[in-house]
Amino acid sequence: MVVSMSVPLTLLGLLEREPSHGYDLKRDYDTFFGRGKPLSFGQVYATLSRLARDGKVVISDVEPGEGPDRKRYVITDAGATEVDAWLTEPVEPEPHLQTVLFAKVVLSLMLGRSAEDYLDLQRNAHLRRMQALTDIKRAGNLVDAMLADHGLFHLEADLHWIETTVARLDALTKEVRDA
Predict the structure, then answer these.
(1) Through-space distance between the first and last CA atoms of the chain, rounded to whole angstroms
(2) What sign has the CA pseudo-torsion 118, 115, 151, 133?
(3) Angle between the 77-87 and 7-17 helix axes, to the nearest 10 degrees?
(4) What is the CA radius of gyration of the chain?
(5) Count of other CB atoms within 10 angstroms of residue 155
(6) CA 61: distance to chain centroid?
(7) Residues contacting 152, CB < 8 A, separation 6+
(8) What is the pLDDT tens value at each position of the chain, 179 positions in all?
(9) Residues 6+ apart with CB under 8 A from 32
(10) CA–CA distance, 4 with 31 (Å, rounded to integer)
(11) Helix %, strand %, coil % for the chain, to 5?
(12) Is-contact 29 15, C-beta < 8 A?
């Protein structure tokens, strides 16, 4: 199962929609998928080169440009088959049971530090991030709103976990120290 964003498969999907130049692929990727992490042109062209080497895209035509020639990329049947398989494969459900948040709480308890102080700091960081995502949701388009909702729902679940953990800290402290 695919756990993180796959740049090659996403670019292939954009090419299945329509043949494109690398510049157009970067623009579309950044518009829909690159929130906070746009692709560099180097990454786009290196990925296209690997996809061409692997027979998943071909160059349909080359146009002269101000700099290097502009190549239009077209997805092959092999590339389209891979996109289809990827789009029908479920993403591994989150969250994973080994998280940094959990590790910090347990280590704080093991080391005799205040897990509650840490959880208060984390709660405040989550609330600040939730405010930022809410602002994005209010000011953005539907794509922005849906991405913000995804983040907000995960942060809400984390906040619920933080509150539950604070309520169980005495018992957790005893269990961790007795281990």
Answers:
(1) 34
(2) negative
(3) 110
(4) 22
(5) 16
(6) 33
(7) 130, 133, 134, 137
(8) 333 468 999 999 999 999 999 999 999 999 888 877 889 999 999 999 999 999 999 999 887 767 677 899 999 999 999 999 999 887 777 666 668 888 899 999 988 899 999 999 999 999 999 999 999 999 989 999 999 999 999 999 999 999 999 999 999 999 988 87
(9) 143
(10) 18
(11) 65, 10, 25
(12) no
Token couple for 133: 């995502």
User: Residue 107 has which token pair?
Assistant: 């280590």
Q: Which amino acid is at 102?
A: F
Q: Residue 141 corresponds to which tokens in the numbers above?
A: 């388009």
- Is 17 in contact with 9 (CB distance < 8 Å)? no
Both structure tokens of 47: 């990925």
pTM over 0.85: no
